[in-house]
Amino acid sequence: MKRNSSRQHNLKRERQLRGWSQEDVAARIGSDPRTVGRWERGLTFPGPYFQQRLVDLFGKDAEALGFIAEQGENLSHAPTYSYDLHSNRDSGEAQHIDNDGEGPVTVAWPPNLPDEPYYPLPGRERDLHNLLAVLQDPQGALVITIDGLGGLGKTALAVELARRALHQGLFKGVIGDSAKHELFAGGEIVKVNEATLDFDALLDTIARQRGRWELTTLPREEKRAMVAQLLRQQRYLVLVDNLETAENADALVSHLRNLLGVSRAIVTSRKQVRHDFVQAHALKELAQEDALFFLRKDLEQRKVEQLMHASEEKLVAIYRVTGGAPLALKLVVAQARFLDLDVVLRRLSSAGSKLYSFIYRQSWEQLSLVAQKILIYIGRTVITTIGWEELATVGMEIAESEEQLLASIDELVAYSLLEVSLAANQVRYGTHQQTRQFVNSELPELWREQGLL
Q: What are the C-alpha distances in Å from 408 to residues 46, 270, 308, 369, 391?
């Protein structure tokens, strides 16, 4: 902890210079005074969420004050999980195991982008081979778009494509952002039904991730010109995830044409985008061969003893009822940990086009009250992921003890409603976009049906 003492002293000194108490800092960033005190004493280090809040609070001096974690530091006291699909990664950075057996290659990963797990499925490998060829071609498309319905694995494919491009040295690094269900308009935060990403917000993200905080204060056109200059100086891969509306996807991709220079972009969207500088890839449900491979891998990772030795006939039945959507496969496996598989399949076979709604409702009813409240908080307030420091602060207002909070997190992970990853040596928690949609749209409707609203 010795090497962190100057950083923590800087935090305390800067706070005192501004005449702020620990309570003042805590109120401004949404934490609590005890947490700020632990940071100042070097007992813990702020995770990515609170690092960003401190950066917003102290401005461009934040990095000099030591609010950005040094590589290799591990000060998080959050719990770890044996079923974490990111267990093959360390140092809070993504690792890719190359097929030629050369071992892991470590690359930095932006904290506001989901670091999705990827299974090397035969069909997806063919997709990756073709898309990687586009990035390797000097005359290839400026932008690759990956479109398809929710739950098909668009983000996982985009993330793995980015990892492999970095592994081959095609780009200096990855920068980017994920679409949000909240917009800042008219001086207030407005919730929207479908996730969007404003081009001006993307410019701010790129500027911050390149360490050019001062650019965020410039007028839009001047900011755009400066960000374009940054992307022409070195070859970066811009990753834009989770665009849901056709209008937002088309408008944002159009802006990228004159922004990228020598850089390239990958965009995931529910709607297809057509431009002469875009290589569009429509993602479909998994073929049976891929789905069975995915199921076996997921069962192995999650150690679902009830299904580890299930017959191929049973796995084919899961594939048929889900249609081969990866997220649906994971959710069915999660339910089969607690319910008889035949019962689960029989119920799902009558769900028809409302498969996800049916699965989520069934899972919701199995959760404890504390787990339900944690899911509501994350689904309504967290855009990508949340760190243990913040979750513990909020969770202790919901749960009666830390043990109860941890048990509730275990519940959510077991039901595939909460995903666990590592970023900057910090445990991070997040939900799939489909899960957030259930929490924000379908859950209130369920309550109305039950007379709770």
A: 23, 31, 25, 9, 12
